[in-house]
Structures are given as C-alpha cells and as structure tokens.
# Entry
Amino acid sequence: MTTEEIWEKTLQDIKTEVSMGNFTSFFKTSEVIEIQDSTVKIATLSTVVADFLDKKFSSLLKETMSKYTPTPVTTLEFATKTVKKQVKEKLPQDQFDFTEKKEVMPSMGHIPRVRKDFTFENLAVSDSNQLAYVSAQTVANNLGRSYNPLFVYGPTGVGKTHIMHAIANQAYQKDSSLTIIYCTSEDFINRVVDAIRNNNTSAMKRYFRSANLLIIDDIQFISGKEKVQEELFHTFNAIIDAGGQIVLTSDKPPQEIKKLEARLSSRFAGGLTIDIQEPDFAMRTAIIMKKAEKFGYDIDIEIAKAIAEKEQDVRSLEGALLRVMTEAQTRQVSAEKILASNILKDAKPIGFRLHSDDIIKSTCEYYDVKPTQLKGPKRDAALVKARQVTMFLLKQELGTTLVEIGNLLGGRDHTTIMHGIEKVENLLKNSAELNEEIMGITRNLRG
# Structure
C-alpha cells in the first residue's frame, strides 16, 4: 500500500470520529509525505494546524494509521510552514522543517497547563469584558493585595480562560520564582479524591497550599461534593493567610452555585466578582483580527466582519477563521472568494448556541428513550447504549468535562463517564452501525 493510499484510508476512518469542521480544517488539508519504520511525517498548512493535530489528535492518528502501516506508528513529525499570504506555495519535501514530537504530551507553556500565547496583549477588549480585563491586570501586578479572590463568571466561550492564563503569564513574567498553579475544578476534584483513596492527603495539601497564585477554572463543578469543598475551604484560607492570590471562574455567580457550602460561597464573594457578557459584533470582529494576526494571516477587516456576522461564540470564531483561510490556501484563491462561495453556510444563525440539553434531547429522540430514563439508575442494554452515546457526544461536540457530564446524567462518577466514552470510541472503530447512529444524531443537531 502506498503512502497516499495509507493516508486516504486513515482519513476515511478519522472522518467518522471527529467533527466535520475539524476534519475539513485540519485533517483534509494535511498529507503524509513519508513513512519510515514507526515514524510518520505529516505536512500541514501552518504551525497552528500542526500544534492542533499534535495536542488533540496524536493518539487517534497513530492508532488509525497503524491499522494500515507495516509497523505500528509510535512517532509523529510535522512539517510546518506559517503562511501569511492567502495563496499557499507548494514546497518540495526537503524544504519542510521537521520537528520530532515526543511521546509525552508537550507542555503548553512555561507554566504547566498555561498557554503562553494567552496574554493580555492579544486579548480583544470591549465593553463586554473591559472591567474583567482591567481587574485581572491589577491582580496579576499585585498578587494578594487587590481583589482577593477575583471571581470571574460568564457563559461558555466569552474568554474567561484566556484571562486566567493571561494573569498567570503576567505574574510569571514579573517574578518567575512564584509558585503558580492553574487547574480546572475537575483536576482539583480528582487530586482530592485520589489523595483520600491513597491515604496521602498531606502531599496533596502541601501541593495546593504552596501556591502563591492558585487559579481554578469552572469552580461550579464542586457543587455537592462535601469533601472537596472542605479541602478547598482550608486551602483557600491557607493561601490567603500566607499572602497568596486566588482566582476563580464559573458560569454563574457564587450565590447561584447550588449545593455550595455557605462558608465557601461567602469566601468566593468576599473579593471582587465580575461577569463577562456575550461579545457584540464589534468585539467579535476584533477577536477575528487578533486571531488572524496570531496565526500569521494578513486579512482585510471586511473579511473579519463577514465571519463575525456568521458566528457568535468566541471559540467558533477561531474555527471559522481557520476554515476560511485554509480553504483559500488549498484552492489558491482569495478569502473573499471563499466567503462568496458561502463556505460558512452551515453556520447556525446568530444567537444559536448548541447546548447540552440539545444533545440529550436529540439522543433520546433517536433511541426513543426519555431524558429521565437516561439520567436514572436503570441499566437496560438499550438505555446504557443511549447513555454512553450521550456521554461521547457531550465530550466531542461541546468539550464538556467528565465531572459536568456526570452531573448532567444524574450525578454519575467521572470514572463511569470515562469508561462510557472510551467504550463508544472503541466500538466506533469496528461498528458501521454505531457510526451511522452517531452521524444521524449529529445531523439532527446541526439541523
């Protein structure tokens, strides 16, 4: 089997396992240019595409290609070339710059789990996030002395995480000796649970309480978890008493987080609480321009406006930009022509946001079960299948955390959710029937 045939077979398999947007923007535009023993070299359009494939889909690529290569694939190398023009030049193979990718997950930056490119300088600012922006800068420059804790809340996709990473980056730039810990609530929960299970809570306590700056994303998911809340309460006090800084994000203000201990709610609200609103048209346009600059694209503001008219969610803006520019490079035409061809015609109208309830409803309708049954304790084969497919879709389509999926499906443990998702992923590799079912559900979701 030739290199081209192996890549074509790989693409056919991957197409059923990722969203169409990811497939079109990242996989379809890439190509395998060399297979040597267990190493595969992949050419991509830009460093953005290479980083995305490496961080998000390296395991999927290795596993899928290994079905067709003589030797199992263990190493991926990416040829990257940042393209600033809208017409991509085809380079001979020896002009690609290969960088070997290690087996371990690469660090996202100088601080574990913090993206180095998420800074205050490349954050688009408007009325919707102006207060959060200024307050976050104040905190980063005066750890423990202003707004402690800083509590930022707002819906998904409005830039809360970017601001959190920017705080960490700026604090680190001022003093690299600081102990900075960034984690999601799921990470915090897992560490506490594992420490209790392994009878090693002292190490866990030392880890969190040593922080000069502790940032916890999506704190709302500690709702109802008494042991976790107790540990967070004592960690909170220890860091504050030592002069450290705490920053938290949530999708709702402290007083609206259900099953949250009164003493914690009081601590959360004891500093500065700020909300971030949905971005308006001007803000979305500014975000597009910022992201284009970051990715090395030279685009006209009219192109940014056209994309901003189609998409509202901040995370969708980046995907739409990449899709337009990738198509322009692939077809070797201008971005204006790509937009004129209505490539974003599948985009939902402004104001539409896919929600977890949409996925639950669509899956229940497809399998003819009720949401109450899906969230209930019964384990009939048909119910278990529908439940696990729902878990898979919530993770794939929305990036929902395991803890949140468990909460949405009747308070199930995150290990149960992980098992369900892995089971669906494994079945999808060999079951044409399940592939068709999931494609049917996603077609309904996208209208």
